[in-house]
Amino acid sequence: MMMIKFILIFQESLKSVLSYRLRSFLSILSIALGIIGVTLVVGAVNGAYQKAGQILSMFGPDSVLVFGGTQKNQATGFRTKTLTFEDLYAIRDAFPTAYILVPMSARGDIKVSYKGNYVKTFVVGSTEGYSKSWTWDIYEGSDFSKEDVDKAVRKCLLGSYVKDQLFLNEDPIGKYIYVNNFACQVSGVLEERGISNFGVNINDRVIIPITVLSKFITGDYKYITAMRIRFEDVENLNNRIEELRQFLRYRHNLGDGKDDDFTIVGPGDILKFFVAIGGALIAFLTIITLITVSVGGFVMANLFLISVTERTKEIGIRRALGATKRDIFLQFIFEFFIITLLGAIVGFFLGSAMAKIISSFKVFEVVISLNIFFISIIISGALALIFGVAPAKKASEINPITAIRS
């Protein structure tokens, strides 16, 4: 009997939602705006952690990246030329478990052209094994060799973006492109990576022997920008990083009290960075979302309070026909639940559509999952309970005689 009564009250609530279309539309819209915020917030956090996983996977759990200069030096533009080729050779001799060790120097905004097509791109000078050091497959052609590096043979690997811009549908292998003003033969094309570093396309690069970079672009035969090292004994990576730090301090004559003139980055540092960024992102976006959802709830509550006043006579008639205070209270609570549920569904789908649009710009990924839908439903239910009680209570306490006379 009680179940039948609940069903009848629910049906009455549904009729009211359909009858007062403008109020229902505005209420659904106010809730939907809040849920759009929730969808984008949770999706952005999911995307940030997915990005962290991709970058950590790309970086490698056995890998270390050493830069010349400190992070403070790099930020303020002070001298960062502290790593040398001699450092590289010394590390190779001192660390037998370093199974991959490659130097890197780079220049940005370099014009690269083929026939009538050209791009301004990032040119990296390195040695054979650069792609292996980053677990980056060569899907066309092959890597340049140690002999190519030693003899400064003008060969190159293309990032997939550069290949697409210069060659369109033409096979690039064996063709000559111009890097600045010198010709360079394409030996291979790197596999496309679906990762961008905060809007920077990592496929937008050309890799050449570091000796070619020194000879034709930088003129620097002593210093390198960075080195990439991979160790066999990954379980001892933290120990290797500290040993490497002490080794470079010794080579650079850095006594007690002197800061490192280099920066070592390991997988743990990247993880800490993303945890910090993720925490800040969650805190900021959560505050924004709470504000948005709360505003939506207040708007809806006020609309319902106005509706109670407008429906005074209707409420009085229902009471006169036998409806109890509890019935009226439940009717308005059900109306609130129906509207917040519809708002959650509309908000989720609109938020998902906006997430696709945002992700299409390749600045950062907004990842939508089914969990977000359930979170939206839970939030909508909470809104109904928090903001729906006051209007429902007001409606249930209306005096039926006074209401009918009005």
Which descriptors apply to this entry?
alpha+beta, Multidrug ABC transporter substrate-binding protein, two-stranded antiparallel sheet, MacB_PCD, single chain, transmembrane helix, 2 domains, six-stranded mixed barrel, Macrolide_Exporter_MacB
Biggest sheet layout: 6 strands, mixed, barrel
Straight-line N-to-C gap: 33 Å
Order of strands, main sheet, comes to: 3-4-11-6-8-7
Order of SSEs? HHEHEHEEHEHEHEEEEEHEEHEHHHHH
What do the pLDDT scores average to? 88
| Model regions low in confidence, pLDDT < 50 over at least 5 residues | 75-79
Measured as a percent range, the helix fraction is 55-70%
Cα shape:
elongated
Number of strands: 14
Helix run count: 14
Structural class: alpha+beta
Organism: Calditerrivibrio nitroreducens
Family: Belongs to the ABC-4 integral membrane protein family.
Keywords: Cell membrane, Membrane, Transmembrane, Transmembrane helix
GO molecular function: transmembrane transporter activity
